[in-house]
Design brief:
Helix content: under 10%
Largest sheet: 5 strands, mixed
Number of strands: 36
Distance between the termini: 41 Å
Strand order of the largest sheet: 1-29-30-31-32
């Protein structure tokens, strides 16, 4: 009986990590990989706004929305923007019909850092079912029992709640969380923050860790990189954890659209372990750029390799059609493999988190890699590209010449073209609407992905036939910042389009 009990407990712990969609990119590695079969994309089951005052720029919506979370009991939790440029609340809905779980949404005094494209309010669900969400002054709130109408609540500050309460106005004005929150398997959370003024104790922009018991620690971005010119964690860059949850990865920069590093830190102490300066692939003597408008976050592969998207260097942006690069490193952040060969990088990367596709999901694959990567593969007509915007399955351990630049990049295993002509670029032959996805949900059971396009439709991309086997229209289509797709524990598919969260299923 004791052995059976241990096995049951182990199974429950595994399920607690594998099944819920706990944060950005599903999990702490940002894999996007679901162990649940997605439902058929037959109809919109329910829908609700995630922005009560969306600010359009002509026909485009330059706003990043936080990923919905799904609990083990199938509660859908998501942030809602309430004002024109700021203000958020957190809602919980029943997956079956969208009915409210809580009598009132959770309110937060969280305020965004200075921005161009509006950043997300990034929330997270720990394996013990505690919801964490950002607050003012670099603080975070929690809510326990999120599947119930009520639950215990509290607040924590990585620099000490007593310090915050002694001078809340100063901290509120000068300290802002600037990334989604990530949780490890123990319930500790991590996030980036920006500091723009003097505080006591003296804080510098960097990365924070709050343990499950509320104890906080932090490291400045400059200390993490060992470079005094580094001033911040890159906006919107959700920290990622190694598969054993001992190492934390995050990008830091010298400011918006400037150079920087990918750094590895001890996940328990935030002590620096290693770093790599981020370089342009085609011009390796040129620093890559790290835009605050992007949503690139590190993805950690099953073998521990780390992938991170960057923009091309300042002297070479247009030659690459503004696609950026998906850089590729070992777990120690070396760009070389065991034979001293440079690991191949992806041909697109600046505004996405690559998703993990086990090689067994792609029947046509004949290579030796145990997993592949799903990447957005836009080729922007407005930046000199072909306008033939695709999504791609790439082999991270094999290579080919890039058609646009000639650089050696990850080998394409499958690609599929967007199906809808782009009227904005009708003069460019074959131009189609962009894919507006930053993290893509991978259905490991049905061997497919659920992807959303700026044409307002959601598609099921079947890996066996390399075709779109289902399509459902959500909106009329609009240019918008990239958004996530999510698969719930009952297989309902969630996507954000034109400031609305859609629940899609049978």
């Amino acid at each position: 009986m004791a052995a059976a009990g241990c096995l049951a407990a182990a199974s429950a712990r595994a399920q607690s990590v594998a099944l819920p969609w706990s944060g950005h990119g599903h999990d702490a590695q940002h894999s996007g990989l679901s162990q649940v079969a997605s439902q058929p994309l037959n109809r919109i089951v329910w829908q609700t706004p995630v922005d009560l005052d969306p600010q359009y720029s002509g026909t485009t919506l330059y706003i990043h929305y936080g990923s919905p979370l799904i609990t083990r009991q199938n509660t859908v939790i998501f942030p809602v923007k309430t004002g024109a440029s700021d203000g958020f609340r957190i809602e919980a809905r029943a997956a079956a019909d969208g009915s409210a779980i809580w009598p009132q949404p959770l309110t937060t005094d969280y305020s965004l850092p200075a921005n161009n494209w509006t950043p997300p309010c990034g929330i997270v669900l720990t394996p013990k079912n505690r919801l964490w969400y950002p607050g003012a002054g670099g603080t975070v709130y929690y809510r326990d029992a999120p599947d119930a109408a009520t639950g215990a609540t509290g607040r924590a500050a990585f620099y000490g709640l007593g310090n915050y309460e002694a001078d809340a106005a100063t901290f509120n004005a000068n300290v802002k969380i600037n990334t989604p929150i990530t949780t490890d398997r123990y319930g500790n959370i991590f996030f980036g923050f920006q500091v723009t003024g003097t505080t006591t104790p003296a804080l510098q922009s960097g990365l924070a860790r709050i343990a499950e018991d509320g104890t906080g620690t932090w490291v400045s971005a400059s200390t993490a990189a060992g470079d005094g010119g580094i001033v911040k964690v890159v906006m919107n860059c959700a920290p990622a954890l190694s598969n054993d949850h001992k190492t934390l990865y995050v990008a830091v920069s010298a400011g918006n659209f400037s150079s920087g590093y990918l750094v590895a830190l001890d996940a328990r102490t935030l002590a620096p372990i290693s770093k790599v300066r981020l370089k342009d692939v085609f011009n390796p003597g040129t620093d890559a750029l790290l835009p605050d408008d992007g949503t690139a976050t590190p993805t950690v592969g099953p073998d521990g390799d780390v992938y991170f998207g960057v923009f091309a260097g300042s002297s070479a942006s247009s030659y690459n059609h503004y696609r950026g690069w998906l850089l590729h490193f070992s777990k120690t952040l070396s760009p070389l493999d065991g034979n001293g060969t440079v690991k191949p990088c992806g041909a697109f990367g600046w505004d996405q988190s690559a998703s993990i596709v086990p090689a067994s999901l792609v029947a046509s694959y004949q290579g030796s890699s145990s997993y592949l990567l799903l990447s957005k593969y836009n080729d922007y007509a407005g930046a000199g590209g072909t306008g033939k915007n695709k999504v791609a399955i790439l082999d991270p351990h094999d290579s080919m010449p890039d058609a646009a630049t000639g650089a050696i990049v990850m080998k394409e295993i499958l690609t599929i073209l967007g199906p809808t002509p782009d009227d904005e670029y009708s003069s460019v032959p074959g131009a189609v609407r962009e894919w507006c996805i930053n993290t893509v949900a991978i259905d490991s059971i049905n061997k497919c992905a659920c992807v959303h396009s700026e044409d307002g439709k959601i598609y099921r991309w079947d890996f066996a036939s390399n075709s779109f086997t289902q399509t459902l229209t959500l909106t009329d289509g609009i240019g918008e910042a990239y958004t996530p797709s999510v698969i719930g524990v009952d297989g309902t598919v969630y996507v954000i389009a034109n400031a609305i969260l859609f629940a899609v299923g049978k």
